[in-house]
Amino acid sequence: MAAGTALDPASAAPVRSDRIERFVGQALALLVSLGIAVALGSILIVGYGENPLNVYAEIFRGSLGSVNGIGYVLSIATPLIFSALAVAVCFKGGMFNIGVEGQYLVGMVTAAWAALSLDFLPAPLLVPAVLIAGMLGGMVWAAIPGVLKVKTGAHEVVTTIMLNGIAISLLAWAINFPLKFKNAPPGQNVDLRTDLFSDQARVGDIGQYFDITPGAHLSWLLFVAIAAAILVWFLLRRTRLGYEARAVGSAPGSARAGGVSIGATQIRLFLISGALAGMVGMPQILADKGYLGAAYITQLGFTGIAVAFLGQNNPIGIIFAAILWGILSRGEVALQIGTDVPREFIIILQGILILSVVITYQIAKRRLAARQLQRAGAAGALEDSAALDESAGPRGPEDKGLEAFRASDAGGSG
Amino acid sequence: MTLTDFAVAIQISLTYFTIIYLTGLGGLFSERSGIVNIGLEGLMIIGTVTGAFGARYFTDTLALGQPWGPILGLLFGAFCGMLFASIHAIATISFRVDHIVSGVVINLVAVGLARFLSQAFFGQATQSDPGGPHLPVLNIPLLSSLPRGLDRAFEDLSPFVIIAALMVIPVWYSLNRLRWGLRLRSCGENPEAARSLGIRVSVYRYQGVLLSGAFAGASGAFLASDVIGNWREGQTLGLGFISLAALILSNWNPIRLMFFAWLFGFAVAIPLRLDDAPVINLLPPQFIRMIPYVVTIVAIAGFVGKVRPPAAAGRAYEGGGSL
Q1: Which residue of B has its CA nearest to A99?
Q2: Which of B33, B101, B230, B282 has the smallest set of CB atoms within 10 Å of its CB?
Q3: Residue B119 belongs to some domain of the structure
Q4: CA A222 to CA A81: how far, in whole Å?
Q5: B319 in a domain, yes or no?
Q6: Which of B100, B242, B301 sits opposite A152 (nearest CB)?
Q7: Residues A110, A293, A181, CA angle at the centre, nearest 5°?
Q8: What's the total number of domains in chain B?
Q9: What is the model's pTM?
Q10: How high is the ipTM of this complex?
């Protein structure tokens, strides 16, 4: 976040207070938006003739009130952590990867292919090979918008939307033709899918060690996701690439002047993002189903964007945001059983939450930027030029998801 | 493949043209006013569920019958699409949230909201009962008397197909000849200049986004009521994104948009009806479904032609808090 200021070591003293202020601002914005969501949700609940306190308590009881519930919550959170990290990595570089959706579908195809064709490998080798295949699939699919952006200036939002559409057809083709099952159980009507993966290809269930039902499909991929979050945090905060990413994201002009290759940084970020996106589909095919079928879970890529906002694009924040999302999603079941509120209420609550998060963060960011500008002694004139690359220091890279279609691309080809 | 198959493929393509063109026109108004709208898919989804409900409600419950029931149903879908688009408008114009961020949220929320509404409307979350009311189909005069089976292309079409095709006239006229349209476009090209001429940029942008909701909502309602016959979760099948692709390729021009909307409509129709035609039978149907997306990537990357979006589309307009 502090890329703009980090470029200027002379202003070290105000940096600290800026950072604290920003942290407090973000925390406040999060609390306010949670408050708005809970309040609006309560109005809806009252409309259904229920007591809001009861309903919210029921959601938490259903999700965190038992070890099984916790298992389900963590299992829901696992792919969302990967997905949100993939979004956040690109965001830090000022790019918007809304192609995680397509990247994880391609990752599932390549992983399924690896699981079926490398099944001669022993388990300790096969599982890593399958995971790497999934990540490679995601990377290839993410490399396309990255390279196109850098080489031709094609905006990544448009190309990733289109690649999402292609990925859906690609997956459908894969399970219709090359990967279609050959050994269907005789006499049964089987939905379109691949053959079952061998047992060595499946990731181990960890729920059994905590008395969590196998139905939760909680696997050690959860730990991989947490490790990935820590790795991404380290990458963005403590490595050269991370520094360059934040520089490119917040002030491409200064970054270029400072000798950062913007194009190379953007492509690297897309590759990392794609690798993370490739992991999103692994829990459902390796821990849950054990095959890739037509009825796969969709929308994980888009939900990841919501989780990334909720976690403020902070890798550690994302872990908690994904768990919160999991709590709400799991709470659905409890609502169904314990109250008169329909389970779809949860989706509305999640929608309200994400809308209010997006809007309050935006307001908070503007307030903060205005105050910091004021303190820096800059008058209103700077307000306008803050939109330019060079002086975008106090604003986060989030502002730059889409300047004009070309504004950010001019930097890309440099 | 026979000539009749080809004619039927054309007929299907005209139906899908209607969906893609209406949604594309929605995107056109929004982006010409300066607000990027990747939430078209979400707006369509709201149109499908509310349109299917509206058609049934006005036709059966209020016993308005034909043709007012289905017409009001479509308008209800358009109205609800507009209401839903107002979220995008408030977020991007009043709160200056990034347009892409808001569009993604619109798409995400629409899926959940559609279920919620479906539960309230139909008592089930993922579909309504099949066989909902729709306008009677008609044959296009003259064209439907073509010989050799070609007449099939212009038979049994919904009147909305013709209305959608005719929409090009008012849309083109309003954007190119009316003061309102020229002002709307100036907000998308250069809001600062527009403001200096006393144009209320935010007002025009609100109108652009609300119109996009109305068009996309009507398109969704048409899809649910007239094409499929009931609401089903996921029935938009990415047509909102295909509309966006057609819009980009058309260079944000309503006349060219007609061509690309029809072309992509035809791409949808090929796997349904022409799967045994020469060349096509060599390709798996899934590859044909990729065509609109591939063409768009090729075009946006500048390999063919030049894509030029409205200059200020996607940029928050900073000036004039009072406007």
Answers
A1: B104
A2: B282
A3: yes
A4: 9
A5: no
A6: B301
A7: 80
A8: 1
A9: 0.88
A10: 0.89
